[in-house]
């Protein structure tokens, strides 16, 4: 295996069925060599198709895992199928925005590379979306995929953009630390809600009390949630002596 990737292919150029998997493996096993040999030219078609492939795989896995994992509110098959069709394209659009932010950061750090190179760096990291989807089986565990992505951006900063290690670790390290603090704060809030009995109450999926019309052990539908909101409004207005709105007839 050489610095040009698998079978002599330059990473980020000449997309094929083999390179879809080969680049992802090389990204994990030899990230320094991968980003050092990353093609900086060749248009947008290759990185777009590469990112779409991995975003589609991650979307499918997320939907499957979402069916296996209890959820407070489930939108149903229709919304999930719509997301399966359009979700990867929406995520790709977000990737262009993230790449723009990375482009600005790298230029402030001293990079001379263009936006296309920044987008390629984002696109080749897209296999981590699959890792994040799988780790999503356990709450907060998918944060590890994000942190590994930050590490890969540090490598890309040094190898592709020729930024000094000290500067790369300082900027993206700060981003990683901020993310860890956010995760710890979120986990602490969740723990406090569990301690107070708002989450994970026996017989309540996802810690949400059963609504009217909801089967035991099943997540509530959007209609159950809407009916519960209306019921609570009626009770509150009755306590205040105001006439409550009539319940919606089925």
Task: List its traits.
single chain, 250 residues, mainly alpha, disordered N terminus
Overview of the structural elements:
By secondary structure, this protein is mainly α. It has a domain at 6-145. 64% of the residues lie in helices and 0% in strands. It has nine helices and no strands. The protein has helices at residues 17-29, 31-36, 45-68, 77-108, 115-124, 128-135, 143-159, 165-195, 222-239. Helix 3 crosses helix 4 (77-108) and helix 4 (77-108) crosses helix 5. The protein starts with 16 loop residues before the first helix and ends in an 11-residue tail after the last helix. The model is unreliable at 1-8 and 200-208 (pLDDT under 50).
Helix percent band: 55-70%
What is the count of DSSP helices, taking H or I runs of 4+ residues? Answer: 9
Strand content: under 5%
Average of the residue pLDDT scores: 80
* Sheet with the most strands, sense and barrel status: none
Please report the distance between the alpha carbons of the first and last residues: 66 Å
Number of strands: 0
Coarse morphology? globular
């Amino acid at each position: 295996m050489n610095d040009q990737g698998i079978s002599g292919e330059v990473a980020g150029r000449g997309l094929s069925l083999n390179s879809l998997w080969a680049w992802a493996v090389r990204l994990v096993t030899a990230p320094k060599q991968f980003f050092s040999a990353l093609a900086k030219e060749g248009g947008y078609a290759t990185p777009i198709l590469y990112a779409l492939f991995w975003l589609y795989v991650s979307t499918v896995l997320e939907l499957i895992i979402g069916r296996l994992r209890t959820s407070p509110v489930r939108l149903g098959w229709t919304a999930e199928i719509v997301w399966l069709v359009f979700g990867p394209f929406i995520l790709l659009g977000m990737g262009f925005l993230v790449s723009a932010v990375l482009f600005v950061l790298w230029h402030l750090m001293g990079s001379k590379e263009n936006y296309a190179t920044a987008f390629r760096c984002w696109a080749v990291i897209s296999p981590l979306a699959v890792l994040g989807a799988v780790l999503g089986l356990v709450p907060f565990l998918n944060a590890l995929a994000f942190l590994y992505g930050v590490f890969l951006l540090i490598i890309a900063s040094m190898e592709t953009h020729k930024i000094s290690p000290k500067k790369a670790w300082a900027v993206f390290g700060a981003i990683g630390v901020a993310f860890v603090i956010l995760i710890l704060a979120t986990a602490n809030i969740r723990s406090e809600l569990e301690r107070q009995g708002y989450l994970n109450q026996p017989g309540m999926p996802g810690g949400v009390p059963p609504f009217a019309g909801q089967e035991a052990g099943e997540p509530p539908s959007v209609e159950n949630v809407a009916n519960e909101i209306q019921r609570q409004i009626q009770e509150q207005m009755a306590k205040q002596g105001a006439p409550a709105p009539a319940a919606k007839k089925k």
